[in-house]
Amino acid sequence: MADPQPPQQAARIAQQDEADLVLRAAAGDRSAFGVLVERYAGVARRVARAVLGNPEDADDAAQDAMLSALVKLDQYDPRRPFGPWLLRIVANAATDRRRRRTVRRVEPLDVGLTAGGPRPDTTAERRALGERLRQALAELPERRRVAVVLFDVEGYSHAEIAAVLGIPEGTVRSEVFHARRRLRALLADWKEEA
Amino acid sequence: MKEPLPFDHRPDPLVGEALRQALDPGDAAPFVARVLARAAEMRIASWDAVLARWARPGVAAAVLVALLAGYLVGRATAAPAPRPSVYDALLAPPAHPGEVEIVLASVIGN
Questions:
Q1: pLDDT tens per residue across span B28-41
Q2: Contact A67 B19 (CB under 8 A)
Q3: Which of A64, A80, A103 is the last residue of a domain?
Q4: Distance from CA of A3 to the nearest CA of B (A)
Q5: Is residue A3 domain-shared with residue A94, that is, in the same domain?
């Protein structure tokens, strides 16, 4: 049986594959664009939700970003990874939407959830933890939110996140650190309560 | 709980999994379908825009081409003008008799 490809080589092949998909999508190949949308739908929606909170707004922002990326595909440099390029557009689209949003607001959370109320069963418990985490995330500065989601959920490197957010790598490390400290404290409290 | 190092380069699985669940957007299929439908609408709209942008210059160019073609065809098929005969050239009275007088006066004057 052949040895598995080393990670760097696999990453290079994946990047080449994506560059090819992007070229085809830019030339009008709908199926290639479809593959890219399927591949990045999850991360784009999560990043947008980290910024906006509201899932409907987040999906609208992610959709706008995908379409904007389609229009700008000729500006993409195929020597660079596609993910950070796309996610920068997603983060900007979500930020723009948040700035424009003045009237619509997320439903206020149940006081019992934010103050550590009773937890009736496991499903409700998980849902409540999710609400608490989203609440905690919403209290963090926007850049910190996106940084921790990209690092701990999506597995992007500090350098890639720096490219997405347009900030130095050291600042990304600091943002991730502060976000983690807050979220870890929340998770620890949750466990103690359990 | 262990405090994360400031420069920890590894993702935190605990925070990562909890956040993933908290931000879970649900089924991707409807979202993907929506994006692709909008992309298709955009493509149609962009073709319409291209056609609309080129419609007026296109009609003007077609009219010019038709006029030019008509002129060229008309010139090619028109009867050739009659060539002057030797008689016309040498013996026929001049179309402008005054010119001869001017020429003669200038010769006599010299």
A1: 999 999 999 999 88
A2: no
A3: A103
A4: 25
A5: yes
